[in-house]
């Protein structure tokens, strides 16, 4: 049940379908489906502790590409052997319209503006301690996130835009960057 230009689905109906799907996953109504989703998420999180986001993303893209290329070749060989003319196996997905209209872009821009304004007001309220209990809860959450951040390697933190604490690894990187600057300056003649 995916939206396409042939079977338009209203936004509210689409959102209710997604909510129902999420609730079904969280309540484990279909054990195989929930187990697959949550074990995939756990594998992804474990992979992020071992590799950078770029590596994990590249491996996921390669796995998906390998699966689709293999399936396409399999269907092509099957069509050639059976002498059928079924066409491209992903034709229905290729025909789905995915371009955003100006109205949709405007609607999403308005939502992003609303969410960012709300987020800034809430952060101002938390950091300027309007309510002591809420600010303490936020501090505990941030403290717990430091442990999650410790699980990621340094490159992942750099990619995510986090500023890693000064570690011996960063000192080595700074040393090598200094050597590179010295070499570049000597070549350029500064």
Give the DSSP E fraction (strand runs of 2 or more residues).
under 5%
First-last Cα distance: 64 Å
Mean pLDDT value: 79
Poorly predicted ranges (pLDDT <50, ≥5 residues)?
1-7, 162-166
Bin the helical content: over 70%
Total helical elements: 8
Structural class: mainly alpha
State Rg.
25 Å
The topology string of helices and strands comes to HHHHHHHH
Count of extended strands? 0
What spatial form do the alpha-carbon principal axes imply? extended
Task: Please describe the biggest sheet, giving its number of strands, its sense, and whether it closes into a barrel.
Answer: none
Main location: endoplasmic reticulum
Protein name: Reticulon
Keywords: Endoplasmic reticulum, Membrane, Transmembrane, Transmembrane helix
Organism: Gadus morhua (Atlantic cod)
Give a concise summary:
By secondary structure, the chain is an all-alpha fold.
Show the helix and strand layout.
Blueprint: H1 11-26, H2 31-50, H3 53-82, H4 91-94, H5 102-127, H6 132-151, H7 154-159, H8 168-188
């Amino acid at each position: 049940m995916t939206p396409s230009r042939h079977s338009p689905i209203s936004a509210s109906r689409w959102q209710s379908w997604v909510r129902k799907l999420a609730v079904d996953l969280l309540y484990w109504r279909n054990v195989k489906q929930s187990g697959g989703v949550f074990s995939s998420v756990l594998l992804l999180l474990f992979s992020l502790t071992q590799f950078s986001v770029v590596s994990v993303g590249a491996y996921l893209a390669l796995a998906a590409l390998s699966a689709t290329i293999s399936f396409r070749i399999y269907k092509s060989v099957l069509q050639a052997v059976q002498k059928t003319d079924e066409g491209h196996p992903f034709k229905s997905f290729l025909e789905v319209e995915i371009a955003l209209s100006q109205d949709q872009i405007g609607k999403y821009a308005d939502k992003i503006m609303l969410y960012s304004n709300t987020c800034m007001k809430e952060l101002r309220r938390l950091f300027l301690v309007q309510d002591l209990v809420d600010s303490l809860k936020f501090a505990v959450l941030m403290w717990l996130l430091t442990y999650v951040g410790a699980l990621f390697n340094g490159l992942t933190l750099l990619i995510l835009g986090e500023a890693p604490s000064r570690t011996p690894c960063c000192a080595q990187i700074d040393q090598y960057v200094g050597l590179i600057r010295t070499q570049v300056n000597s070549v350029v003649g500064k």
